[in-house]
C-alpha cells in the first residue's frame, strides 16, 4: 500500500511534494532533536524538522514510537523521521510504519560517523556500498508516496575510491527518484574536524541542476549562510549545531532570507523566558531528573550569549532538580546577575 505525503503551496525549497517557504530546516540531531527542540524551533520560524535518527528495525515497535524523541505530535507537522539500517526490506517496512504513524517525510541516514554505528556497517559505512544504498532507496520509494530524502557525507574518507562511491551514490539516487539529497560537506573519517567542503556541494548541484541538493556543515551565522547558499547555488541547507540552545537562529535566518533587518539579539530576560519554555516542553515528556539531565546538554548553547558565560555554565551544569534549574536561571538571567 502506498501512503500519501503532504501538500503545501510555498516555494523556497521543494522536498518532493513538500514545499517550504524558506530554504532551510532543522537537522536530525541524535540526543537533541526531541519533541521539545523541534516544537521550539517551529515556534521560532523553522518550517520543518527531523526527529532523532532511529534504527529501522526498532521503528515498528509502538513502545519505541511513544518516546518523545521519536513521537510526532499534532502541532508539529511537517516533521520527518530519519532511519538507519542496512537491510532494504527492513528500511522499507520502517518507512511505511513511520508514515502510518504520522511522519510526513522519510530520511535515510547514510552519514552517521559514530564508531558503534560504523562497526555494524550502518550509517556512514554504507557510503562504501553504493548497491545497498540504492536498493534501500528503491525499496523505500516503492512503498511510500511521502518524500524520501537521503543524508550523505562526501565519502567515507578522502581516498579516490571513496569519492567515486560518493558520486555513484549521488548519480544513482537521483536517477532512482530521491526527492532531495542532504549532504554534510565532510567525510565520515573527518567526523566534525576542519571546515565543511561547500565547493564539492556546489559541484554536485552544478552537475545535477534539476535535483534538490541541500547542504550541511558549519551553519552558525545567518547572513553568511544565506550568502553561502546563493554563492554555491544549492537549494537549501540544514541547521544542526547552530540550533542547539539557539532557537533564535531560525527567526534570524528568516529575516535575512526575506531581506528584513535583523532584530536585536535577545536580552537576558527574554533569553530566560525562552530557556524556561524549552525546559517546560522537556518536562512534559520526561520525569524531572531525566528532564534536567537532557536539558543540561542545551546549556552550553544557551550560555553562548551570556556576558559571563563560564560561571553561568558552571552554575547551570550543577543543577539536578527543576527548582535548582529555576533558581540558577533566576540568578544568571536577570539584569542583576553576579558580575564578579
Ligand atoms: C550531537 C549531534 C548529533 C547528530 N545527529 C545526527 C543524526 O542523528 N542524523 C544526521 O543525519 N545527522 C546528525 N548530526 C549531523 C548534523 O545533522 C549535521 O550534518 C552536522 O552537524 C554538520 O552541520 P553543522 O556543522 O552545521 O552542525 C549530528 C550532529 C551532532 C553535532
Short description:
The chain has 340 residues and is an alpha/beta fold. It has 13 helices and 10 strands. Residues 27-32, 52-53, 82, 109, 111-112, 151, 184, 216-219, 240-242 line the site of flavin mononucleotide.
Question: Could you say what the CATH architecture of the largest domain is?
Answer: Alpha-Beta Barrel
The helix content, as a percent range, equals: 40-55%
The unique ligands bound to this protein are:
flavin mononucleotide
Q: Just give the CATH class of the largest domain.
A: Alpha Beta
CATH topology of the largest domain, what is it called? TIM Barrel
pLDDT < 50 stretches: 1-9
Total helices: the number is 13
Q: Give average pLDDT, whole number.
A: 94
Number of strands: 10
Number of domains: 2
CATH level-four homologous superfamily name of the largest domain: Aldolase class I
For the biggest sheet, the summary is: 8 strands, parallel
What strand order characterises the main sheet?
3-10-9-8-7-6-5-4
Q: Strand-residue fraction?
A: 5-15%
The N- and C-terminal alpha carbons lie at a distance of: 65 Å
Cα shape = globular
Radius of gyration: 20 Å
- Provide the structure class: alpha/beta
**Sequence of secondary-structure elements:** EEEHEHEHEHHEHEHEHEHHHHH
Amino acid at each position: 500500500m502506498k501512503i500519501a505525503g503532504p501538500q503545501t503551496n510555498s516555494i523556497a525549497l521543494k522536498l518532493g511534494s513538500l514545499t517550504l517557504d524558506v530554504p532551510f530546516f532543522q537537522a536530525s540531531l541524535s540526543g537533541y532533536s526531541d519533541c521539545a527542540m523541534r516544537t521550539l524551533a517551529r515556534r521560532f520560524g523553522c518550517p520543518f524538522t527531523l526527529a532523532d535518527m532511529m534504527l529501522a528495525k526498532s521503528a515498528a515497535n509502538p513502545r519505541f514510537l511513544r518516546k518523545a524523541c521519536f513521537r510526532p505530535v499534532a502541532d508539529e507537522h511537517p516533521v520527518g523521521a530519519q532511519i538507519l539500517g542496512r537491510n532494504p526490506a527492513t528500511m522499507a517496512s520502517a518507512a511505511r510504519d513511520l508514515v502510518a504513524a504520522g511522519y510526513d517525510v522519510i530520511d535515510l541516514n547514510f552519514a552517521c560517523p559514530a564508531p558503534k554505528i560504523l562497526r555494524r556497517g550502518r550509517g556512514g559505512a554504507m557510503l562504501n556500498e553504493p548497491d545497498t544504498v540504492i536498493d534501500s532507496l528503491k525499496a523505500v520509494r516503492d512503498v511510500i508516496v511521502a518524500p524520501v530524502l537521503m543524508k550523505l557525507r562526501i565519502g567515507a574518507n578522502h581516498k579516490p575510491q571513496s569519492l567515486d562511491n560518493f558520486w555513484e551514490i549521488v548519480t544513482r539516487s537521483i536517477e532512482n527518484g530521491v526527492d532531495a539529497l542532504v549532504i554534510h560537506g565532510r567525510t565520515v573519517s573527518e567526523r566534525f574536524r576542519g571546515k565543511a567542503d561547500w565547493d564539492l556541494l556546489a559541484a554536485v548541484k552544478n552537475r545535477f541542476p534539476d535535483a534538490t541538493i541541500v547542504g550541511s556543515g558549519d551553519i552558525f551565522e545567518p547572513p553568511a549562510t544565506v550568502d553561502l547558499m546563493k554563492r554555491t547555488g544549492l537549494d537549501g541547507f540544514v541547521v544542526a549545531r547552530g540550533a542547539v540552545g539557539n532557537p533564535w537562529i531560525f527567526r534570524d535566518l528568516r529575516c535575512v532570507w526575506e531581506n528584513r533587518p535583523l532584530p536585536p539579539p535577545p536580552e537576558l530576560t527574554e533569553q530566560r523566558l525562552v530557556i524556561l519554555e524549552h525546559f517546560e516542553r522537556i518536562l512534559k515528556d520526561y520525569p524531572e531528573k531525566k528532564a534536567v539531565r537532557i536539558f543540561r546538554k542545551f546549556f552550553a548553547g544557551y550560555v553562548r550569549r551570556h556576558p559571563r558565560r563560564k560561571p553561568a555554565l558552571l552554575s547551570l551544569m550543577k543543577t539536578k532538580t527543576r527548582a535548582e534549574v529555576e533558581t540558577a536561571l533566576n540568578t544568571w538571567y536577570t539584569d542583576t546577575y553576579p558580575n564578579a
